[in-house]
């Protein structure tokens, strides 16, 4: 009977394509919007994941997320270093500073100051130059998106392309000269501002003079030490907050989930995709069943058991669900691939595939339930009613 | 003929069968105590005006509609006493259907349509379709086994429906207005075919029809009116054949006929 179910489904081209379109649309919209949401959220904690090396981030207790910087006294670094289980601890400066561009305008940049000696917390990928080049006088490393975008020099001709800044070019950061010593690749920031890496001492020189300038202490736990336990020890010893890398990611993620309208806005789009998909696919699938009810009744009359008819409908729903989901996910992936080098934030994870697959399955089950109810209730005697 | 032999020759037995639809003021009584027997080897026609209960009666006989009171047995089995699943299985094994509107699945080839009762019974697809093609050969459209129903004329579609009703070798075949959608000549051919391939000593046919032109094919004609069988008479002139003959007996009517043997 599987064969009969499949031919009933695909033989009715118009309805088959209608159901597929509904499910594809739902799958595409759910996957695409959720991927953009995930991509956007990944940008919120992108700096944390880009910072390689430390296991633990230490900060002021009032910090709510990565951008919410409440500077610490420099002496805190030494107190952290003294905590049992800490292998090493390095300072990190992170702040927003204004860069003056060639055309006279200003661009706010994320300036990151790395420990002068070890350069711990530097970018993972260097496109040009080396991280060690930061040891040269006045040197900075600029992220490629910023170099080619907001920090790029104006076009030489009207209507021409901007000229990306390159190694050897100079910038003016808070009235201080900085020389580009390298280009790196980092996760785009949530605010899409350029990221500039330099040494800790130089960053604090660039920054406006304040009593406290230490943003975070990056900590590596000793081998075999439980990171959460080390966090607890640091908190107890210093009165600061200490999070594992994942914990700090989650803190940042949760902040954006809780205090911004992003989840609601994207949630509505995803819900809309689900509702529209359910409506289109459900209605079309139901109509398909209703139109075929006399054939289902005939099958019943000829001895088809309820379980066989149930299997037929579930098979039909599964087929359109799988194909619709596949096309939708493929379309969303293509969308993300084609726009990979743009400002678009797009992150399609396996979890999103599971979620969109689950949503499509729910749509199919709802559609199938309506159809199953109709078929189960159909009296085989209707086959004799002309 | 012994009692046992007589009992085994009865294909369908209806005793005091009643059926009503609705309730209260909207109650419509479709069957008002039907007593009827159909023996194996017989082609019985149920005739009568619209709304007289013919369709309800074959629905009850075929086990796709429950009657309210009375007894219905098909090949000695009390359909009402069976569970739903048992009755469904019984239908699948013992009853073939020919519908007025053919009810051929439009997206299946005619060979696949014919194979449906076998597919329902769990026969492998290729084997079922091969058997379907054999039946299509018997009804003389085997050369078009790959065609979709929409490519066939009404008469050809009815041949396919007959082949489908026979493919699983059922003992009872119920036909609802098998010629109503067909012109006179095609209707005649279809009935000749039914008589040829569907009737036999081990089978029984119950045909509901309005079409007086095919009465001649009946062994017996049961006339219904207002939910009752009002008469059972012999059919029209019979084409010469060597079929085993049975009789239909309206138990309580005045038109009881004799066994012709």
> Average pLDDT across residues of chain A?
86
Tally of DSSP β-strands of chain A: 10
Global shape of chain A: elongated
Count of DSSP strands of chain B: 11
Q: What is the C-alpha radius of gyration of chain A, as a whole number of Å?
A: 29 Å
Order of helices and strands of chain A: HHHEHEEEEHEEEHEHEHHHHH
Q: How many strands, which pairing sense, and closed or not: the largest β-sheet of chain A?
A: 6 strands, mixed, barrel
Number of helices of chain A: 12
Architecture overview:
Chain A is an alpha+beta fold and 386 residues long. Chain A is 50% helix and 17% strand. Chain A has helices at 2-11, 13-44, 46-50, 75-81, 144-148, 200-206, 227-238, 245-259, 262-291, 293-301, 306-338, 350-377, and strands at residues 56-59, 86-100, 106-114, 125-128, 139-143, 170-173, 176-185, 195-199, 216-221, 241-244. Chain A has a six-stranded mixed β-barrel. In chain A, α1 (2-11) crosses α11. In chain A, 43% of the residues are buried. With 261 residues, chain B is α/β, with parallel strands linked by helices. Chain B contains seven helices and eleven strands. Chain B has helices at residues 3-9, 54-61, 84-94, 110-120, 125-138, 154-166, 184-198; strands at 10-21, 28-39, 43-47, 69-74, 77-78, 95-98, 172-176, 204-208, 220-225, 228-234, 248-249. Chain B has a six-stranded mixed beta sheet with strand order 6-7-8-3-9-10. In chain B, a hairpin with a 6-residue loop joins β1 and β2. In chain B, α4 (110-120) packs parallel to α6, α5 (125-138) packs across α6 (154-166) and α6 (154-166) runs parallel beside α7 (184-198). Chain B starts with a helix and ends in a 12-residue tail after the last strand. In chain B, 51% of the residues are buried. Chains A and B meet through α1 and α10 of A and α2, α3 and α4 of B.
Summary keywords:
heterodimer; A: 386 residues; alpha+beta; 6-stranded mixed beta barrel; 12 helices; 17% strand; elongated; B: 261 residues; alpha/beta; 6-stranded mixed β-sheet; 5-stranded antiparallel β-sheet; 30% helix; disordered N terminus
